[in-house]
Amino acid sequence: MRQRLDRVVLGDGTVVAYATAGVGRPLVYVMGWLTHLRLGWELAAERALYEALAPGCRLVRYDRAGCGLSPAVERPASLAFELEQLGAVAATLGEPFDLMGTSMGAPVAVAWAAQNPDSVRRLVLYGGWARGDELSLPAVRENVLGLVEAHWGLGSDVLTDIFAPDADRATRAELARYQRACSTAATARALLALSYELDVTGYLGRVRSPTLVVHRDGDRAAPVAQARVLAEGIGGAQLAVLPGRSHLPYAGDRDELVRVVRRFLGLSVPRRRADGLTARQLEVAELVSQGCTNREIAVRMGIDERSAEGHVERIRLRLGFRSRAQIAAWFSERR
Predict the structure, then answer these.
(1) Residue 278: CB partners within 8 Å, gap ≥ 6?
(2) DSSP states of 67-129 as a string?
(3) Using CA atoms, how far apart are residues 262 and 269, in angstroms rounded to an integer?
């Protein structure tokens, strides 16, 4: 699957980069804190999530101002600014769309659906909250904000441990580098502060779109109690609480999250295979079991080394393993 990059320009000159993938009715995906359309597409775990969501629909994602491919601006972060950026992307569609907000994108999606009821067919909220000041104690919030501002490297490491506690050390290191590549420390702090300030409790009762609230029961970044606030405040909303501790939607059991979301949106839900791997992935797993490096796998299969690395990472995530050694042992036992 390929993504197509484009951009929109707001009235004040703010440039917002957005990407589309797949064909069908639009699914606008409002991402969380920090994003990068190009680097996120290159991150094996994140791309696997989008490729699983996109079949049968047109997945639309965007980088908020100051993140990824969207240049920074002098304008301060606010809910109004968030809604203006979402509105500019939505205007390119020219039709009602499904709307999915994850993490900080969830309260933004709530406010949009409440203010623009005719534009949203169905609403999905993952890992979100109604009141940002209830995510953690005030002293904890101030310490985290201060750490991000004063030492962005250490701050990104700490937040990665909170966002993806189930990931192995190498994956967490990659995610921390990814966050630092998404924005400056100043932008990261401003957006994190906004996430703590968002309060959409007044919008909940105004949402008219059929709504699904999805949350992991052990989410360390957003307490599951906030998911219940969202579901109870939106009339007729469904609540699905999944097992897991990871806040990032593409960490942990990504497949079950995708199944729940696609079923709610009326899209086909792929059946789980016994091992969950494609024929191509089984071929890669066999080469891993033979002790091949990513470079050797690439040569044997006639692909580039990055693609080989992506295959191995997807296999590891799909099987819930932490290392290549586990893949090798699993394949040997299976054979």
Answers:
(1) none
(2) STTSPP-SSPP-HHHHHHHHHHHHHTT-S-EEEEEETTHHHHHHHHHHH-GGGEEEEEEES--
(3) 6
Q: Map tokens 């990104």 to a residue.
A: 156
pTM of the complete model beyond 0.85 = no
- The label of the residue with tokens 């509105």 reads 87
DSSP per-residue codes, 3-16: EEEEEEE-TTS-EE
**107-110, long-range: CB < 8 A, 24+ apart:** 107/79, 107/132, 107/198, 107/199, 107/200, 108/30, 108/79, 108/82, 108/83, 108/198, 109/30, 110/200, 110/203, 110/204, 110/207, 110/230, 110/234
Task: Tell me the per-residue pLDDT of 1-27, one tens digit each, with 9 for 90 and over.
Answer: 899 999 999 999 999 999 999 999 999
270 occurs within a structural domain? no
Neighbours of 115 (CB within 10 A): 13
CATH number at residue 324: 1.10.10.10
Between CA 90 and CA 92 the distance in angstroms is 5
State yes or no: pLDDT of 274 exceeds 70.
Answer: no
Same domain, 165 and 302: no
Say how many CA atoms lie within 13 Å of 178 toward its Cβ. 23
